[in-house]
Amino acid sequence: MSWLERLLPKRNTSVDSRKKSIPEGVWSKCTKCAAVLYRSELERNLEVCPKCGNHMRITARRRLEKFLDPENQQEIANDLKPIDALKFKDSKKYKDRMSAAQKQTGENDALIVIAGDLLEIPVVCAAFEFSFMGGSMASVVGEKFVRGANYAIENNCPFICFSTSGGARMQEALLSLFQMAKTSAALARMSEKGIPFISVLTDPTMGGVSASLAMLGDVNVAEPNALIGFAGPRVIEQTVREKLPEGFQRSEFLLEKGAIDMIVDRRELRTRLASILSKLTHKKEPLRQVSEES
Amino acid sequence: MSMHFLEFEQPIAELEAQIEELRLVGSDAEINISEEIARLQKKSRELTKQIFSDLDAWQVAQLARHPQRPYTYDYLDSIFTDFEELSGDRAFANDWAIVGGLARIDEQPVMVIGHQKGRDTKEKIKRNFGMPRPEGYRKALRLMQMAERFKLPIVTFIDTPGAYPGVGAEERGQSEAIARNLKVMATLKTPIVCTVIGEGGSGGALAIGVGDRVNMLQNATYSVISPEGCASILWKSADKAKDAAQAMGITADRLKSLDLVDSIVEEPLGGAHRDTGAVSKNLKQRILADLEELNSLSTEELLDRRYQRLMSFGVYDE
């Protein structure tokens, strides 16, 4: 260090420390329009770009906490943990992949179930966590989904599921495939009891999750521009050996083809789903109640 | 038709070729070489026994896909009588990759539904290599609901690489078609007996695979994704299919030990294609035994057991 630097350390360090003192992620960039956005504003906006409306990924826990009324949220079956029944190992052990995912997400597995109220309508909600091994469905996801469905039956309240998943989890092999049958069976029971199930498909919902619980809503709702389908676009491209049409397997395409009922902006999901459910369960329009009260 | 030998069967193939040659010589030269032939045949049998006593998962996968393996139509011929095929989903098309219809098993009327692969190139293409499209699942659903209406048990045969990954299939709602079948089959008020006879490929297999009994032929496979698909995703190379097959545990005995399938139907030495009559006899016995037990249950008991069975799938800590 030269004498000059020794004389002027404050200035230098102050610049450095100011750089460092900016907490990580004050700014975010929209993944679509590349607009630079305030992290806090984006959070308030539920990870939807205020400039272009692009729906970016949101964690399962935040999604449910924001979707439900803030009071009376009660988590279901959060103590369920995955087991490596097959002692599966590819380039990494399944066990290690699990613990890495648990560490990264702070969740035990890829599904979270919370009971609560939606504009004062009692509901139970499930959400997939994409950051947990691609939101893949295996034993724990299947079982938690069933517990959610059972809660809905016991409490005679609607069930809502937000899916985002690459499909069935290969590391639990056939156990994962059979979760498709298990979750669908639980939904069959719910249907028989006349309990509504709303499936919200978000980006992406593919494979075994799309070919089971996610397509079985009494009402199927998708967020804008979500990739939804059975086979992945790359697999299809390799099979048919041609470029896929623009917008293929996106929400708007599925609406056109008749696979979903509607496309709803994330910021409107609370009010729109509450309105649908209030009619299915013969309750007053929730927003009208609120506006009468206020 | 001459026997088709797989790569791992090459030593057997060589012996068999020798036997064939001797036979030709024998008929020409009038030399008595039957002793030599018998010796070689014995050797061939022993070698087959030895090779087949210790197959790895990838070798079993090859057997499950053997080009001469019996398909659904073969079992319709050997196990059932008076088959009347029913076609079409009444909405879009008839899918030739799934066949179904009314038949009798020992005089008992049943609905039979199964994947069907083709034998020659032309038929393979017509049947899309046994890969169904949504209309196939919807035809199956229509037949299953008809079976429920007329109180007929359902017998399904699973043998598919998987659902067809095509543009049209996606446009017509492949996911929904599979999902719908899973949901309806869970509560269908008639007995359902499913058997994996060859490849149990993922969602395309499961779509006719939810039942009261799920059996597997000894050399059939059942998996969430093909070994090649799994290898190319997790190992980043389809060449690792052998490792993937092993890791996923796709064979009947492994899946039985996990309580995911109910029974294993024994195949003749060397695989089902060596003796369709023998495997058919075993399979028929299994189906009849299952039907007898399921027919004795009340609808409520039947559905309750099926539901409990489905709910039992999964391994986790609590």
TrEMBL record, chain A:
GO CC terms, sorted: acetate CoA-transferase complex
Enzyme class per UniProt: transferase
GO biological process: fatty acid biosynthetic process; malonyl-CoA biosynthetic process
Domain CoA carboxyltransferase N-terminal: start-end pairs: 26-294
Pathway named in the protein's UniProt entry: Lipid metabolism; malonyl-CoA biosynthesis; malonyl-CoA from acetyl-CoA: step 1/1
Main location: cytoplasm
Keyword Phosphoprotein found: no
Residues the entry annotates as binding Zn(2+): C30, C33, C49, C52
Family matches, as Gene3D superfamilies: 2-enoyl-CoA Hydratase, Chain A, domain 1
Cofactor annotation comment: Binds 1 zinc ion per subunit.
Reactions the enzyme catalyzes: N(6)-carboxybiotinyl-L-lysyl-[protein] + acetyl-CoA = N(6)-biotinyl-L-lysyl-[protein] + malonyl-CoA
Swiss-Prot/TrEMBL keywords: ATP-binding, Cytoplasm, Fatty acid biosynthesis, Fatty acid metabolism, Lipid biosynthesis, Lipid metabolism, Metal-binding, Nucleotide-binding, Transferase, Zinc, Zinc-finger
Transmembrane segments: none
GO molecular function terms listed in the Swiss-Prot or TrEMBL record: acetyl-CoA carboxylase activity; ATP binding; carboxyl- or carbamoyltransferase activity; zinc ion binding
Localisation: Cytoplasm
Role noted for this protein: Component of the acetyl coenzyme A carboxylase (ACC) complex. Biotin carboxylase (BC) catalyzes the carboxylation of biotin on its carrier protein (BCCP) and then the CO(2) group is transferred by the transcarboxylase to acetyl-CoA to form malonyl-CoA.
Family matches, as PANTHER family: ACETYL-COENZYME A CARBOXYLASE CARBOXYL TRANSFERASE SUBUNIT BETA, CHLOROPLASTIC
Protein name, per record: Acetyl-coenzyme A carboxylase carboxyl transferase subunit beta
Gene: accD
TrEMBL record, chain B:
EC number: 2.1.3.15
Gene Ontology CC terms, in alphabetical order: acetyl-CoA carboxylase complex
Enzyme class: transferase
One MF term in the entry's GO annotations: acetyl-CoA carboxylase activity
Subcellular location field: Cytoplasm
Function noted in UniProt: Component of the acetyl coenzyme A carboxylase (ACC) complex. First, biotin carboxylase catalyzes the carboxylation of biotin on its carrier protein (BCCP) and then the CO(2) group is transferred by the carboxyltransferase to acetyl-CoA to form malonyl-CoA.
Subunit-structure text: Acetyl-CoA carboxylase is a heterohexamer composed of biotin carboxyl carrier protein (AccB), biotin carboxylase (AccC) and two subunits each of ACCase subunit alpha (AccA) and ACCase subunit beta (AccD).
The protein's name in its UniProt record: Acetyl-coenzyme A carboxylase carboxyl transferase subunit alpha
Organism: Pleionea mediterranea
